[in-house]
């Protein structure tokens, strides 16, 4: 059997933080959907069938953790995924996002 070595100097703090944030089904759905296309808040809450306030709270946490960011276009803000780690994690779980 192959012996596995653990690198005590390697930190997985960022990856663990991303996994915690993505551990909520709504946030996981949001990130999966945003991987396929940028969306504004209205489109996200319509696709998820959730109140705007709920979606906004989840978006705020995802933004705070630097997983997504918003791009303003006039009065609307379009969100997209900026975290390469989150993209890889969610990409490994899903082939396509929930919102098309």
TrEMBL record:
PROSITE patterns: HTH_ARSR_2 (PS50987)
Keyword DNA-binding appears in the UniProt entry: yes
Keywords: DNA-binding, Transcription, Transcription regulation
Pfam families: HTH_5
Ranges of residues in domain HTH arsR-type: 7-100
SUPFAM superfamilies: Winged helix' DNA-binding domain (SSF46785)
PANTHER family, alphabetized: ARSENICAL RESISTANCE OPERON REPRESSOR ARSR-RELATED
Record protein name field: Transcriptional regulator
Organism annotation: Desulfuromonas versatilis
